[in-house]
TrEMBL record:
<feature type="binding site">
    <location>
        <position position="13"/>
    </location>
    <ligand>
        <name>substrate</name>
    </ligand>
</feature>
<feature type="binding site">
    <location>
        <position position="65"/>
    </location>
    <ligand>
        <name>substrate</name>
    </ligand>
</feature>
<dbReference type="InterPro" id="IPR001653">
    <property type="entry name" value="DAP_epimerase_DapF"/>
</dbReference>
<comment type="pathway">
    <text>Amino-acid biosynthesis; L-lysine biosynthesis via DAP pathway; DL-2,6-diaminopimelate from LL-2,6-diaminopimelate: step 1/1.</text>
</comment>
<feature type="binding site">
    <location>
        <position position="172"/>
    </location>
    <ligand>
        <name>substrate</name>
    </ligand>
</feature>
<feature type="site" description="Could be important to modulate the pK values of the two catalytic cysteine residues">
    <location>
        <position position="140"/>
    </location>
</feature>
<dbReference type="GO" id="GO:0009089">
    <property type="term" value="P:lysine biosynthetic process via diaminopimelate"/>
</dbReference>
<keyword id="KW-0457">Lysine biosynthesis</keyword>
<feature type="active site" description="Proton acceptor">
    <location>
        <position position="201"/>
    </location>
</feature>
<protein>
    <recommendedName>
        <fullName>Diaminopimelate epimerase</fullName>
        <ecNumber>5.1.1.7</ecNumber>
    </recommendedName>
</protein>
<dbReference type="GO" id="GO:0005829">
    <property type="term" value="C:cytosol"/>
</dbReference>
<comment type="subunit">
    <text>Homodimer.</text>
</comment>
<keyword id="KW-0963">Cytoplasm</keyword>
<feature type="binding site">
    <location>
        <begin position="75"/>
        <end position="76"/>
    </location>
    <ligand>
        <name>substrate</name>
    </ligand>
</feature>
<keyword id="KW-0028">Amino-acid biosynthesis</keyword>
<dbReference type="Pfam" id="PF01678">
    <property type="entry name" value="DAP_epimerase"/>
</dbReference>
<keyword id="KW-0413">Isomerase</keyword>
């Protein structure tokens, strides 16, 4: 059958979105999802999402990684599906929806292209030598570095993601450099499930902002601008020294094109 799809991107993190409120799609084959996300033989995307009905909420977000498997929370995907929901007329300026890691609240601009998405609270940040490890809806490894622009993120990220400690479950690997122009950071990410570097990672930049607050022993209400290959994002949150709360991932979410795909 032919299904209408919409292609969205949030700071270069791109997704195929499908309105499945009528439950036309009962299940998706992993191989088919991977083919749709393939940049040479399919539409091309970092992931695929279904927007579905959910009692008591505006909708449910079902997320598949580019490798075809259902994934953990995707922050930029969450922002893009909020923009999609507004485009469909499901929501107006605010929303509460269900995702794999629980309930999320979001606010969207009147133009529908800027989304502020609330992420889950975080209490645990561990150390792996000089790197930080935490879960912001997806597991992340955060490592400070220098000369990030020239770094071979694929090779170094692949090695960490596939080492003996992380190979089975996988982990997203974020390399971080303090920005010379702003109070924020420059971040590049190797994403599990895509198994490559992406132009942005929402849960990744969220993890970076939290890890850097802990690293710098910065407390209170914090706003952290982060530059990624695909643009600019912002993370704001509260940190009392033990718990990170009221975490919001903010940035662009834009419709690229729409079409039909055979499922």
């Amino acid at each position: 059958m032919h299904i209408k799809f919409f292609k969205y991107q949030g700071a270069g993190n791109d997704f195929v979105l499908i309105d499945n409120r009528e439950a036309t799609i009962k299940s998706l084959d992993n191989k088919l999802v991977a083919q749709i996300c393939d940049r040479r033989f399919g539409i091309g995307a970092d992931g695929l999402m279904l927007l579905q009905t959910e009692p008591g909420y505006d909708f449910r977000m079902i997320y598949y990684n580019a490798d075809g498997k259902e994934g953990s929370m995707c922050g930029n995907g969450g922002r893009c599906i909020v923009a999609f929901a507004k485009h469909l007329g499901v929501i107006t300026d605010t929303t509460t929806f269900q995702a794999v890691d629980g309930v999320h609240y979001a606010k969207i601009s009147a133009e529908g292209d800027w989304v502020s998405l609330q992420m889950i609270d975080v209490e645990v940040i561990e150390k792996d030598n000089d790197a930080y490890v935490l879960n912001t809806g997806s597991p992340h490894y955060v490592k400070l570095t220098t000369n990030l622009e020239a770094k071979n993120v694929y090779n170094e990220g692949y090695a960490i993601r596939n080492n003996t400690k992380y190979k089975t479950e996988g982990i997203n690997v974020n390399f971080v450099e303090k920005s010379k122009e702003t109070e924020g950071y420059f971040v590049r990410t190797f994403e599990r499930g895509v198994e490559n570097e992406t132009y942005a990672c929402g849960t990744g930049v969220t993890a970076v902002a939290l890890a850097m607050a802990k690293h710098n022993k910065t407390f209170g209400t914090i706003s952290t601008p982060i530059k990624v290959l695909g643009g600019d994002l912002n993370i704001r949150f509260n940190f009392d020294g033990k718990k990170f709360s009221n975490i919001f991932l903010e940035g662009p979410a834009k419709l690229v094109f729409e079409g039909e795909v055979e499922l």
